[in-house]
Amino acid sequence: MITNFSGANVTADHPPVELDLSNFLYEAIDASKFINVKSWVPFFNEIPADPYIKEGYRYKSIAWFRIKHIQADAVKGIDEHIAAVNKLSGMSDDESNQYLSTAKPSWQSKETGYCCWNLPQYAMQQSIKYNPVHGDMRREYPRINENVIDSDDFRKLLIFYASYFGWSDAVVLVQFQRVDCLANRTGLPAVEGFHQDGNRHVGMLVVNRNNVTEDSGVSQYVMDDNGKKTEPLIFNKVIPADQLIFWNDKRVWHYGTEIKVADPYVNEGRGTRDIIILSAKTPPANMPMGPVAH
Ligand SMILES: [Fe+2]
Known about the structure:
Blueprint: E1 26-30, H1 41-44, E2 58-69, H2 76-88, H3 93-97, E3 107-108, E4 114-118, E5 122-125, E6 138-139, H4 146-149, H5 152-165, E7 169-182, E8 201-210, E9 219-225, E10 228-237, E11 243-248, E12 252-256, E13 270-281, E14 289-292
Antiparallel strand pairs: 1-11, 2-4, 2-7, 3-4, 5-6, 5-14, 7-13, 8-11, 8-13, 9-10, 9-12
The chain binds fe (ii) ion.
């Protein structure tokens, strides 16, 4: 059993009871208590530049998973959505079926009863409603290193996220993202400014901050007011390495301030901020999955 802070308690014997989100804004957790976050630092060095950011300060790799509790009914819309995107990807029915809830999961968490299917390398295709900069454009990204995906710690992180919110069935997008800066060029963690991503909740784990000033790369939240952003900052802090923060993507808008080099004579004048973003998607909410690249 995983016992969380304010999160749901999940066991293999019962369907999970979902965390009541009406009272949830955000919570930060020290992830080093259950995983070795620092062991992932080297993997960020091999992530190629994001071709969709012209200025070249962002690096991104992604992977998709479906995480369903063994005692919970499958959400039909998830199977339908996966089957539809598989078809658009040119998969045969046999190939496609191995990613549905009727197939054997890739792995299972005995303690919590959560089952996980590693999904194909879908593109990101976000609705313009949620991303005015990149909305509706199909973006293809390389896969997170398989050694990370297959590691116990990565599985623990996915299970921790699922158990915290206690969902029954969801697709999870994981993004490994680096933003860098040079002495004469800052880096932008949130290109689109304050925004929401159309999820119910999001998790961000800060893996490393290297040679960036202490007051740059600040995480900021403001409240949502019926779909509109408000002004007062309700959260305005630098989240240090090892911290995992969950927030309610319906109730708050989020932003990360630009990052700046701390010491131009260190690390060849380069600063980096490495994070992992976790977002669970259950229809009818935003399901930004595009076909696999050929
Ligand atoms: Fe975001």
